[in-house]
Amino acid sequence: MKPLKTAVIGLGNMGRHHARHMHQLECSQLVAVCDSKEERANAYAKDYACTAYTDLETLLEKESIDAISLTLPTSLHYDCALTILNKGIHLLIEKPISQSLEEADEIIALAKEKGVCLMVGHVERFNPAIVALKTFMENDGLGDIISLVSRRINVFPKQMKDANVAIDLGVHDIDLISYLLDEEPLSISSQSARALIDNRADHLDILLHFKKASAFIQVNWITPIPIRELKVTGTKGYAELNYMNKEVTIHTSKHEKTLDEKGQVSIQFLESETVILDVVQTDALGAELCNFIESAQQKKAPVTTGEMGKCALKWALKSLNA
Fold first, then answer.
1. Are residue 32 and residue 130 in the same domain, yes or no?
2. In what order do the strands lie in the sheet with 67-70?
3. How far apart are CA 49 and CA 47, in angstroms?
4. 25 — alpha (psi -120 to 50), left (phi > 0) or beta?
5. Alpha helices, DSSP H only, in 28-170?
6. Whose CA is closest to 168, among 107, 226, 223, 122?
């Protein structure tokens, strides 16, 4: 198909990577970049042979754009999203979709009204380790899932200006666990606090309850080393996933049930086998942006729809009040 004319709004920590991929992807023709810092916008425009802007309205007036990556701080998502969608432009919004569920509803409704693709940038869904684990689970490799334990911890990110740890980190794992189980949580309990930051929660423990499984999520901005891991326990095995090195280790669980003379059940566990899943090492962000553009071209739902982004936001917000 003919490449879509694209633009990236916001060239900060994530936006600069969006711009690079939108320039490199065959399905994308990067037409413009926009950032409030003129020097930064000019530098990326020069690198990627496109036009620089410091104002979204001006960009939309002067350029013919098919699809946009919106990578601004969360507080700016709502206004910019409505401006873009009103022009009938396909939109990818970096997670979270917005600051509130009411804003998310308006964004989703406008995208439907305009008939354009709306995708929320939950990039970890495209982490090749998650892709491999999801496939393994769908093939009943772990059996019935009993529990999931996730840790996403690190030092406070300097670029984080307006989000708390639930919105910045917790929303990732809430979305991923719902994705892996293919269901929304039923209830939540949590504990959050402020250890090093005065005005925002910087550490949070979340317990999610699903139909048959439970999930524990730990996120914080106070641990001196980065740890991003997921452990999944099922009736047929145990999985250990490392997001950073993109590895998945499976420990099989084989057992036999017997009944004694009184009819009491006894379970004998056999020797476990350890298997390293074959993870195809791909670039998660590149895969996400390809999915966005292909979804727009083919008029199909992306991997992470607006409704899915809203669901993750809903439970992240609940985690601060549970």
1. no
2. 51-53, 28-34, 4-9, 67-70, 90-94, 118-121
3. 6
4. beta
5. 38-47, 56-62, 77-85, 101-114, 128-138, 165
6. 122
What percent of the chain shows pLDDT beyond 70? 98
- 203 in Cβ contact with 222 (< 8 Å): yes
pLDDT, residue 200, reads 78
> Residue 232 corresponds to which tokens in the numbers above?
């999944």
Cα 124 to Cα 112, 114, 177, 228, 315, distances in angstroms: 25, 28, 11, 11, 17
The 10 Å Cβ neighbour count of residue 81 is: 27
- Least confident segment among 45-59, 184-198, 289-303: 184-198
Give the three-class secondary structure for 7: strand
Beta-strand pair 51-53/28-34: parallel
Largest CA-CA distance found in the chain, in angstroms, rounded: 83
Q: Looking at the structure, do residues 234 and 290 belong to the same domain, yes or no?
A: no
Please check whether residues 119 and 208 belong to one and the same domain: no
User: Based on the domain organization, do 225 and 138 belong to the same domain?
Assistant: yes
CB atoms near residue 262 (< 10 Å) = 5
Looking at the structure, tell me whether residues 176 and 231 fall in a common domain. Answer: yes
Contact call for residues 90 and 296 (beta carbons, < 8 A):
yes
- The residue range of the domain holding 184 is 125-283+314-319
Amino acid at 48: Y
